[in-house]
């Protein structure tokens, strides 16, 4: 089956080369795609095929990603770069897919210089200059405002500026000060709410670090934008400038098609 995919995707990103039932099955599991204008959905399909041409999928724990898995992940991964272009994902190739959550060994030195080693369960992880690792069980679960694939690929965009810190390289014309102000205000408010035990519409994991806040907000921006706009409108507007799309605008009033790259 992997050789079949290679044969298809090596010849170029032509959406018509994928059978309609496969597109329909994959897209039926991604209801947020209904927010896209028809031209953007077509462009996303082409990006997904180009993504599959340039990335190498590997299964872990005896899991073999089939056509459905690869195409599903590719569509979700390409949504954040719909208006940015695949150059934003250059410099690395690997996508490793586990069937379920996996364990990551951690090594942390505390403030007293003591080394702590432990294992952490994870659903996804993005490595700077390395692969994106995903749990397929989490990737296929449709939950409002939650998308592990978008989350990890948002980290990849964040890492374009170095260590993930919630401040990816901004486009010409965007204000670094405006981004930092919107991010800091939203993150501080959200962290305070989580610390106080409030129920939040965003995933509480966003309170862990500004990089996680950016990634969680990116998930919500594409899957349930109303939630983010209601909670943190200024940061929503900054994300709209960064991703060069506003999914709260009626599709007929939006610009469509790829824009200049990061």
Concise summary:
By secondary structure, the protein is of the alpha/beta class. The protein has helices at residues 2-10, 20-28, 38-54, 67-78, 136-140, 148-158, 176-195, 210-223, 225-231, 233-243; strands at residues 56-59, 94-98, 102-109, 115-122, 124-126, 132-135. It has a single domain (2-253), classed as Collagenase (Catalytic Domain) (3-Layer(aba) Sandwich), CATH 3.40.390.
Please give the count of helices: 10
Low-confidence stretches: 1-13
Number of domains: 1
Strand order of the largest sheet: 1-2-6-5
CATH architecture: 3-Layer(aba) Sandwich
User: For the record, what CATH class applies?
Assistant: Alpha Beta
Output the radius of gyration.
Answer: 18 Å
Question: Major beta sheet, specifics?
Answer: 4 strands, mixed
- What is the percent of helical residues? 40-55%
Run of helices and strands: HHHEHEEEEEHHHHHH
Going by helix content, strand content and strand pairing, the class is alpha/beta
Name the overall outline: globular
What's the pLDDT, averaged over the residues? 86
Let me know the number of strands: 6
CATH topology: Collagenase (Catalytic Domain)
Termini separation (Å)? 34 Å
State which percent range the strand residues make up: 5-15%
Could you state the CATH homologous superfamily?
A: Collagenase (Catalytic Domain)
Pfam families: Peptidase_M90
InterPro entries: MetalloPept_cat_dom_sf, MtfA_fam, MtfA_N
Protein name: M90 family metallopeptidase
């Amino acid at each position: 089956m992997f050789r079949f995919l290679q044969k298809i995707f090596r010849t170029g990103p032509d959406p018509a080369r994928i059978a309609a039932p496969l597109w329909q099955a994959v897209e039926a599991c991604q209801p947020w795609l209904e927010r896209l204008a028809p031209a953007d959905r077509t462009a996303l399909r082409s990006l997904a095929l180009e993504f599959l041409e340039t990335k190498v999928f590997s299964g872990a724990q005896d899991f073999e990603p089939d056509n459905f898995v690869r195409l599903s992940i590719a569509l979700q991964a390409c949504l954040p770069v719909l208006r940015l272009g695949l150059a934003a994902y250059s410099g690395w190739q690997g996508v490793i897919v586990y069937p379920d959550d996996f364990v990551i060994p951690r090594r942390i030195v505390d403030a007293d210089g003591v080394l702590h080693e432990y294992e952490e369960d994870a659903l996804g992880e993005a490595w700077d200059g390395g692969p994106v690792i995903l749990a397929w069980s989490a990737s296929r679960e449709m939950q409002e405002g939650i998308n592990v694939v978008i989350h990890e690929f948002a980290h990849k965009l964040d890492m374009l500026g170095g260590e993930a810190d919630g401040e990816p390289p901004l486009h010409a014309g965007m204000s670094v000060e405006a981004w930092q102000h919107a991010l800091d205000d939203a993150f501080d408010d959200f962290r305070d709410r989580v610390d106080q035990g409030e129920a939040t519409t965003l995933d509480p994991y966003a309170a862990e670090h500004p990089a996680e806040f950016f990634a969680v907000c990116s998930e919500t921006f594409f899957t349930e934008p109303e939630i983010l706009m209601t909670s943190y409108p200024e940061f929503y507007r900054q994300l709209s400038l960064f991703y060069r799309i506003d999914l709260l605008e009626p599709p007929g009033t939006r610009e469509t098609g790829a824009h200049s790259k990061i």
